[in-house]
Amino acid sequence: MQFENSRKFARQLDKEDKLSKYRDEFIFPRVNGKEVIYFVGNSLGLQPRSAKKYVDEIMKDWAELAVEGHFYAEKSWWDYHERFSEKLAKVVGANPSEVTVMNTLTVNLHLLMVSFYRPSGKRYKIICEEKAFPSDQYMISSQVRFHGYDPDDAIVEIKKRDGENNFRTEDVLEKIKEVGEECALVLIGGVNYYTGQVFDMETITKAGHDVGAFVGWDLAHGAGNIELKLSEWNVDFAAWCSYKYMNSGPGNASGCFINQKYHNKKDIPRFEGWWGHNKERRFLMEPEFQPEPTADAWQISNAPILAMAPYLASLEMFDEVGMPALIEKRNKIVAYLEFVLHEIDKDVDSTFEIITPAEQENRGTQLSVFLHGEGKELFRYLMDKGVITDWREPNVIRLAPAPFYCSFEDMYNFGQILKEGILSKQKT
Ligand SMILES: *Cc1c(COP(=O)(O)O)cnc(C)c1O
């Protein structure tokens, strides 16, 4: 499609957009009385209007039923978390039994490593990407030390080539082969948080299995953003937070995928609690743990119902729209944003360098842009004008136009504001 950098053209795209009506289902913050242009759905998704109703319902049930709410609430609490599995399984390409919702992301990765990082003998190394999200670095390093190894020896980082912005699949495969039978676990962010690069998860998972390692994925930036087929790719485990693309609210519960081949393994180590116990017998308070025959066996505590309510509200919308429609719009709006950036770059004496892969299959919603010659003042200027972006040192802005609620006109308006911001600085 031939794009045009004009308001008229952007409005036409919005008119043709089948998802445009969902914009009104979200609440936008305002700056100077106007709704912001929100590019940080990859950090904290906007609040769905329906979230409040779901929370209010719990507050009402708690007030009116108190403890009886566990069984007699509108949506009973004892099995509240089970309401997520089927819908969330569609988002990540899994069987419902392989998906559960609990705790928060880094906590879940630690818990999953109890099961899937079991170093012994020669096999004790973890392969991850260089400059992983800090929480992942701390998590991996502390796990390695917990097992008595030296992080400098036990953590093997995949590196980018000099002068390149993204990882090459061939280099990842090469590294896995090289570490070979010393590799206990491959654990990578499926979508890189800094560049937005999508890893070839199917190929890398297979390569990890070929050397006898477990393979897990941190999908913080993947869930609700890209097409995932965790079952088909034979991934061992994955976890993601829900407050980024999945719009569940700050710090909300994390989703986990645990491949069904591990569900009935008697000898799999796991940290256990009563919410993972056979649900029919949970309240019999028997002394011996009987795991649920699903990913729910990894549940520990009773679920934080109030926190989960907005996540459920949001998930209902994902279910209504479906990932294919979201991905279709995502591809178009990201391509349009990329076009607008290139057009603005021609108009101003500046050089933008998009460090996110140019190919659609290697990226999701996020474009990370190096603003050569620009500083943090530009970021502040954008903020003042109601454009919320994410700034990362040294001078990268991350732009993620979430397809649920961002419009093509937002992309056009952003381009105009960016241009004014750069030109006004060049004049002074
Ligand atoms: C956002 C993000 C996290 C956040 O972890 P929490 O435990 O939810 O605070 C972790 N890892 C990655 C890769 C992320 O992008």
Describe what you observe in this structure:
With 428 residues, the protein is an alpha/beta fold. It folds into 2 domains: 142 residues, Alpha-Beta Complex (Aspartate Aminotransferase, domain 1); 270 residues, Aspartate Aminotransferase, domain 2, CATH 3.40.640. The protein is 38% helix and 15% strand. The protein is built from 13 helices and 17 strands. Strands 6-12-11-10-9-7-8 form a 7-stranded mixed sheet, sandwiched between helices. A 4-stranded antiparallel sheet has the order 13-14-17-16, with helices on one face. Strand 9, helix 9 and strand 10 form a beta-alpha-beta unit. Helix 5 runs parallel beside helix 6. The chain is globular and about 75 Å long. The two termini are 38 Å apart. The mean pLDDT is 96. Pyridoxal-5'-phosphate (PLP) binds next to helix 5 and helix 6.
